[in-house]
Amino acid sequence: MNKYSIQTTILVYISISVTLLVIMLGAFVVLDHKKSLQNELLNTMHIVADDIIEHGLYNQSPESLKEMLNLSESYHEASFLEKIREFEFSFLDSPEQDAAFLSVSQKLPDGRYLVIDSSSKNIDEKVYSLVLNISILLLIGLGLIIGIFYLLIQKMFLPLKCLVDYCHNASQSALLPKCNGSYEVNALKEAILELQQNNKLLCKEKQDIFKEAAHEIKAPIAILKARLALYDKSNMPKGEFVKESTRDISTISNKLRELIFLKAIEWDIKQSKEYVQMQNQCDMMQRLFRPILEKKKLKMVSNLEDDFSIYIHKEAMGRVMQAIFENIFMHTKNGTTISTYVDSQKYQLKIVNEIGFESDEILFSSHIGLKLIERLAEQLDYEYSVEEKEGMFYTIVTFKDQIHDNCKL
User: Fold this and answer.
1) Residues 200, 246: one domain?
2) Which pLDDT score, from 0 to 100, does residue 180 have?
3) DSSP-derived secondary structure for 354-409
4) Is residue 167 included in any domain, yes or no?
């Protein structure tokens, strides 16, 4: 987890960026200024050398020459005289220059060479002064920039802080403050409002489940309680009492299962639609109920050469398919074959099985019944029908809307 806030991170990045930028620009300015001072000093040295030759001052000793120049050049600016004071004069028989970097050599009429050297002390002091001024300006400018950006960031993040405080402290019933800001903050605000609304709806749905469950099982529980209360006072045989009590408990359990199944379907329908292959659904049911198929010695066959896809709520449709196949498995004769036919022209799934006695397997959808599956047909856009004929049970599921959409395309 990052221990630094966004504001701190932004300010640090800005500070580093501005510092590096000023350092690079400052280095360029300092180097250019130093080079300019060196060129100016060399030009001055050439001018002095030309004056010495022109006025015939090269017959003097280097010390006398320097003193004479200081006196004769007194009419020049102080900066010019300051440069001359740094000069060192020498007369050589060869054109070799001194090891000093700032040096000028010119040939004299008598064949000798005049060499003028200068130290870089004056230039270094000026460069140092420039670096010091730039550093001071950098600190002042950086302080101003950080201060301005800090105030700007505080203003920009104030709406976000408003939203964070609301999420931490506000109750579900409290109204969300304005917290208006940039596009991103407003989008976050809308997302929080939507999430809050969804949470309220979810809480309401959960409350509705308990209310509906309480309503549905109220009567069966009352009957069971009455049966238990009357057991000691009646002459009902124990076996019959246990059988009827078990039936009461089964009724309560089935009603709760039906209610949870319906609510799960309703939640799944709120999810986005996607394309589903019908053959994949059949294969999935075969894998899901493999233990039941093996126990009842059932086989499932399908016309694999045909297939179609539907645009539907995948999870919700999967629950309905599970309920349909569970109902078929419960009422299929042991040791027979269940045939599934996929018709891509009619967008239809047809399932045929041989009718058998009701199984003793405890499967959820065996208690849901055909009416419950038909009830969901309108919400999931399919048609469901069953038919018994000559000992065979026919289940047909048709996706009418898929046919219409395909015709439009």
Assistant:
1) yes
2) 73
3) EB-PPP----GGGGTHHHHHHHHHHHHT-EEEEEEETTEEEEEEE-HHHHHHHHH-
4) no
For residues 291 and 400, state if they share a domain: yes
Q: Which of 141, 110, 117, 160 is nearest to 7 (CA)?
A: 160
Give the containing element (helix H, strand E) for 309: strand 309-312
Specify the DSSP element, H or E, that contains 67: helix 62-72
- 408 pLDDT tier (thresholds 50, 70, 90): very low
Q: 276 has which bridge partners?
A: 310
* Domain membership of residue 35 as a residue range: 6-125
Are residues 48 and 68 located together in one domain of the fold? yes
Pair 287, 380 in one domain? yes
**HEC sequence for 87-130:** EEEEEECCCCCCCCCEEEEEECCCCCEEEEEECCHHHHHHHHHH
Q: Does 155 map to a domain? A: no
Task: Quick: pLDDT tens for 246-261.
Answer: 777 777 776 676 667 6
Please, are residues 114 and 48 in contact by the beta-carbon 8 Å criterion?
Answer: no
Q: What is the mean pLDDT of residues 199-207?
A: 62
Q: Does 276 share its domain with 263?
A: no
Q: pLDDT tens, 207-245? A: 655 565 565 566 667 676 776 766 666 666 777 777 777
The C-alpha atoms of residue 57 and residue 54 are separated, in whole angstroms, by: 8
CATH (domain of 287): 3.30.565.10
Taking CA atoms, 23 is separated from 10, 16, 20, 137, 235, in Å, by: 20, 10, 5, 11, 104
Among candidate residues 239, 267, 295, the one where a domain is terminated = 267
The answer to whether residue 398 is domain-embedded is yes
Residue 134 structure tokens: 């730039």
pLDDT of residue 353: 92
**Residue 80 and residue 36 share a domain:** yes
**Rounded distance between C-alpha atoms, residue 56 and residue 47, angstroms:** 14
Mean pLDDT, range 390-407, rounded to an integer:
75
